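The protein record reproduced below.
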Amino acid sequence: KIEDPVAGKISISSLATRQDLTGFCLIPPQVTFGVLKEGCTYATTVILKNVGVNFSRFRVKQPPPYTGLRVMYTAGPVAGLQVELEIEILAMVIGGKDTGGLEEVSHDIEILTETETLLLPVKANIL
């Protein structure tokens, strides 16, 4: 049992033992697109879930244009809910050298919350 001196309530909860009542988790924790055809656009959805009990805000640091990646989402507070992040990739080969037909794209998308920075690894092979 933990007494909240501000609200005057006693909380009986497994979450009450945690020091930090905010936090996010990514479902899935990484994105692997597999082999993509050059010139096509592909998309997948990642869930950003608020596992804390408090309102918490976040923002996504957009990847640089040369990666071909873009993250689309609705900004705002997330309280006990989840937000869908749509990860979109335009499959394009960077550079003029011959790589044997496959080029690997790998980038960590940064998601900045009020308490931490989450990294979402994204990988793809462009044919």
About this structure: Confidence is low (pLDDT under 50) at residues 10-18. The radius of gyration is 19 Å.
